[in-house]
TrEMBL record, chains A, B:
It comes from the Bacteria. It comes from Marinobacter qingdaonensis. Keywords: Lyase. Gene3D superfamilies: PSTPO5379-like, PSTPO5379-like domain. This is Putative hydro-lyase U5822_10705. Signal peptide: none annotated. It holds the Pfam family D-Glu_cyclase. Its EC number is 4.2.1.-.
Length: 271, 271
């Protein structure tokens, strides 16, 4: 690909994202961002008061596979210049989940009314980036094929605590046959900032999952004859840690309704 | 590691190999080379008359995972300068398998009497190189742990034919738990010239293997609760193709009794 063609490509992706972001910002688009502007990094979001930020930053540092940090704001600043020129975290997520004292409270489509001068925003890489990479590698991602949300489970894998934050890892599951499973491990290894390689393959009971047909979050997907389940660390993990840490207020995205950045997935690749 | 230390390391490995090679050359050592001078590349060997060499070279080209070519001799020349200064293919393998018209005939510990002026030697990378890499990565290789030969099976995976050479792939199997299986795929991906990543993981019947406890070559190994079998392409594959192609004479190593080269496994790594 020529440099000029590539610039054109990136610009067309950015234009597409800008259009969707504007509809998210106006409250017109409140649904999932799955499959939208799929060349761009999408992010899991956790917003916390500044006096909870140091613990959470250390929690990310201690758990880089489940919480791959790709952006942090200045306290009180709704911008994220590392991730895009035109981002406002108060309006640019389709739907927000508010946590009060660790419990899921209201969901809203705009947090301008809730914004505090001490809020710090953390953005974590998301499996949508590696689903894009898997698709480009010629693999079929079952939840994309079925048009459903990915299956997510509370695992028995403990995260490494930091201050008040602790809890088990949430994992997402995608089934593949043997040869495709090997390829999927190779492809996702390249993307450590999007959870990287799977954390488990095969028998779900080894990581405390009793029934694949009953995910704790998202939708069940079909597992076909000869396929193995592959489990990746999931960006819903910090939501369990929020339940345990019980900050007076915290705000996240609603699973599947992510922050659309202005950076390309390929910029996350290490190999 | 300092450059000087590394030179010392390589020299000590080469000295160790030279000592073993001299005992192989004299006929004193006729056993396996498993675990010997384990930092050095060991090779699968196929020796053919020159009028069979072009077909076999194309067979390697068509099947780089099962037949990763790392050295080819000049016709009639028993040296392999690419792989070591001090190699003589007529004496430097512990035990040779002679094929006559495609059938396994005698085994010998020296082929000086059988040598022909038109013989071409092909050396293929070997799983011993990746077993070394797996061990360095902190994984336990079951056949090494049990002190047995690796389990090998005739699979239903067809190789891509070339001229008179065709047949199914032989695969070697090593069991790992989920997390180690993922790590093993990453580690062996770095070594395409030692068969690279596995070709299959999980259900053996998917690649035509009925019973893991009954390998076609080598020894059975224990598979523990929660472990998955991983299958790698194996350097015994060309021996099946020799059975099908039926050259009047061909000579290979006896499985597990390999050619010890003077190059380090790490020199094969692509990442």
């Amino acid at each position: 690909m020529q440099t000029a063609d590539y610039s054109d490509f990136k610009q067309s992706v950015l234009d597409q994202a800008a259009s969707l972001r504007s509809r998210i910002r106006s409250g017109e688009h409140t649904g999932t961002t799955s499959g939208a502007a799929h060349s761009l990094i999408q992010g899991n979001v956790v917003i916390l008061p500044a006096d909870w930020a140091a613990d959470f930053l250390m929690y990310c540092q201690n758990n880089p596979v489940a919480l791959p940090l790709i952006g942090v704001s200045e306290p009180g600043d709704p911008a994220l210049p590392e991730l895009g020129r035109d981002l406002d975290i108060r309006t640019d997520i389709p739907e927000y989940q508010v946590f009060r004292d660790g419990a899921r409270a209201e969901t809203v489509t705009d947090i301008r009314e809730l914004w505090q001068g001490d809020f710090v925003t953390f953005v974590l890489g998301c499996s949508f980036s590696f689903e894009d990479a898997l698709t480009r590698a010629g693999l079929t991602v079952r939840n994309v094929e079925q048009g459903s949300n990915v299956s997510m489970y509370r695992s028995s894998i403990a995260t490494r605590p930091a201050g008040r934050f602790h809890g088990n890892m949430v994992v997402s599951m995608r089934p593949f046959n043997g040869a495709d499973a090997i390829r999927a491990i190779q492809v996702t290894t390249r993307l450590p900032k999007a959870h990287g390689a799977p954390v488990h393959i095969g028998d779900p009971s080894q990581i405390g999952i009793a029934d694949l047909a009953k995910p704790d979050f998202g939708d069940p997907v079909t597992i076909r004859e000869g396929e193995l389940p592959l489990f990746w660390a999931c960006g819903v993990t910090p939501q369990l840690a929020l339940e345990n840490a019980r900050p007076p207020i915290a705000i996240t995205h609603v699973p599947g309704k992510m922050l659309l950045t202005e950076r390309l997935n390929e910029e996350l690749a290490v190999l």
